[in-house]
Recover the amino acids of this structure.
DNA sequence: CGGGAGCTTGAGGAGGATCAAATCATGTGG
DNA sequence: CCACATGATTTGATCCTCCTCAAGCTCCCG
């Protein structure tokens, strides 16, 4: 939570019309003419791990499309502790609530270095009629992911949860998974940092995962699925 | 999960324009002319506890507005167990995914006898331009609730979770709360039925809640908040 | 080289899971 | 109306997992 102030690198203004992942993102349904109507700048940003997109309670003026990397959404509870309530990767949208709400409802922090498009809320509001379907899809997508966190990552033993987490992580080149810090693993699974560390180590010893570089793992999916389903 | 087939009572066709909770629901922004354009019947139903609105995987042809009562949304995990991923009460919408998806993504079951409006998907699709803002609000509302379940009800000890559940339950007449079966409490909090039962009993003995009738409780909110924040 | 942060490991104890049985509530058929 | 079956709830006893507190460890950076 006490993240340092990390600056984003400026890539330049995004050219949405020629976006490589355009069919995944918010502007999927738009035509050439629509893009001409966008007069506000859409920034193309690169963000290192630890960078904060926005904080809970900030004025919600932008939506963020994730082009690459991994973003966590955090919320704090009354007793000062905090939980991760969603993980966003390629194609997902962070800050959807900007469209209907004054302020952000969670804190968004980069877990794996990310490239994102920072879209002014007004652009989305102006294009709303055209974006309607895509916005609904993005809400749905986001809800599916959050419910997956709730269902798969907070049920059963720590062993089961960690296994399911590995199976749910986005896969990088070569069928490898990039894990994040143990504190974040704990905040996602609803266990302590120590239990997260111990359990990852235990699964590593069991041979279901193999650490090829610090926090980079090759997965034995069959074995992980066996563990995930309770032995 | 093995709910009996319970029939809904037919109230009749809904008259949305004069709905008592219209400003809460999907049709909040509509005018008289818009209602005339609705040619498909919107059913007004009463449903007893245990009734199923729809099952996970069913063809999603209807949205349901909750006018009264409490609905749970369930999902099953790979190992056959199941979790409650959301609780819906007055003003909330069940089955929002019908708009963008072919099938329902969860099973919706009545926890406290409910009155709901069953709205054909086509009605919503046809009115989409007018409903856009309201649909987004409903998605946002639903997401806030699911994230609340994840954050508040799956963190900390069973004592804390049960206390937070009581504080989150809708309040009936006379500041009283109606609890549901222990198995459902367990499926919501991520604990076993036995632990749910034991913990409710323990909080009852502590005086933070008082059972005035079977499963109807008067709350000592200060005391519950003390417990919820970890003693 | 000396911090500092994150990760790992250890020992101990508390809390929840599991298995089992008793109690209570409800509805059914005799 | 009562006897009985069924299912939910409660309670008990035991075991195991995970939390807590604490100490070492590794890696990185000044």
């Amino acid at each position: 939570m006490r993240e340092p102030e990390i600056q984003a690198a400026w890539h330049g203004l995004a050219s949405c019309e020629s976006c490589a992942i355009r069919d995944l993102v918010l502007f999927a349904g738009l035509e050439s003419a629509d893009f001409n109507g966008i007069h506000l700048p859409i920034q193309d940003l690169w963000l290192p791990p630890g960078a904060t997109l926005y904080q809970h309670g900030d004025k919600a003026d932008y939506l963020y499309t994730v082009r690459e990397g991994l973003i966590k959404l955090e919320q704090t509870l009354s007793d000062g502790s905090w939980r991760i309530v969603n993980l966003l990767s390629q194609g997902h949208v962070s800050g959807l609530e900007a469209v209907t709400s004054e302020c952000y409802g969670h804190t968004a922090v980069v877990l794996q270095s990310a490239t994102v498009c920072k879209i002014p809320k007004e652009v989305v509001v102006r294009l709303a009629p055209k974006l309607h379907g895509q916005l609904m899809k993005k809400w749905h997508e986001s809800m599916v992911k959050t419910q997956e966190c709730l269902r798969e990552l907070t049920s059963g033993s720590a062993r089961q949860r960690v296994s399911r987490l590995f199976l749910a992580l986005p896969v990088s080149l070569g069928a490898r998974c990039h894990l994040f810090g143990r504190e974040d693993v704990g905040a996602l699974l609803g266990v302590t940092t120590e239990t997260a560390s111990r359990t990852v180590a235990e699964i590593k010893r069991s041979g279901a995962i193999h650490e090829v570089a610090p926090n980079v793992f090759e997965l034995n999916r069959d074995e992980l699925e066996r563990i995930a389903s309770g032995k």
Q: What stands out?
A: The radius of gyration of chain A is 19 Å. The longest strand of chain A covers residues 62-76. Confidence is low (pLDDT under 50) at residues 1-5 of chain A. Residues 181-183, 193-194, 197-198, 201 of chain A lie near DNA strand C (CB under 10 Å from a C1').
